[in-house]
Amino acid sequence: VETWDGDTDQIIHWLRKMDDLASMSTRMRQQLARIVPKRLTGAASSWYWSLPFEHRRRIEVEWPVLREEITGYYMTKKWWEKLRKRASDARFRETGRTRESPSEYFIRKADLLVTAYNFDDSEMISEIMQGAPSQWNMILTTHLYQTVVELQRAIRFHEEALVECLPQRP
């Protein structure tokens, strides 16, 4: 079981991994509820072990109950608002990501959008392209893509051309 330190930028990835494990069986869901608290580190560990003993016992019965406690504490309304803003504002090679590949941008933006919103494929494609350079529209025929997977494959296929079509920075 992977550790988690309370970093809310990583909570979604960590929860998805725990959910995947929990989906294996009822026994696994029960075991996770007992194991996960011991795999928390840093701020997450401090928070969890600050909870009263009896409360911890009530939430350590099954992963969905423990998950609800963790998300209730860390994924606040303010956290969701910030996430939605980050998802909407994400751009290809934004500050701090100047060496990002087109595929890395797609994965980052899609991950944010899937977490923050409940978009269908058409809306996802539109939002992903909103943060992409306008030059990509000369290479990617987005109106022909029916699914996000098709867009992802096209971005991967045209990766070099998508980078080469950009104006060169001095």
Cα(first) to Cα(last) distance is 46 Å
Low-confidence stretches: none
The residue fraction in helices comes out at 55-70%
Would you report the number of β strands?
0
Total of helices: 10
Main beta-sheet annotation: none
Order of helices and strands: HHHHHHHHHH
Description:
- The chain has 170 residues and is an all-alpha fold.
- It has ten helices and no strands.
- Helix 2 packs across helix 5.
- The termini are far apart.
- 20% of the residues are buried.
- The protein is elongated, with a radius of gyration of 20 Å.
Please give the structural blueprint.
Blueprint: H1 11-22, H2 26-39, H3 42-50, H4 53-59, H5 63-74, H6 77-89, H7 102-116, H8 121-130, H9 148-157, H10 159-164
Helix pairs in contact: 1-5, 2-5, 6-7
Give the structure's gist in a few sentences.
By secondary structure, the chain is mainly alpha-helical. The chain has helices at 11-22, 26-39, 42-50, 53-59, 63-74, 77-89, 102-116, 121-130, 148-157, 159-164.
Key traits:
170 residues, mainly alpha, 10 helices
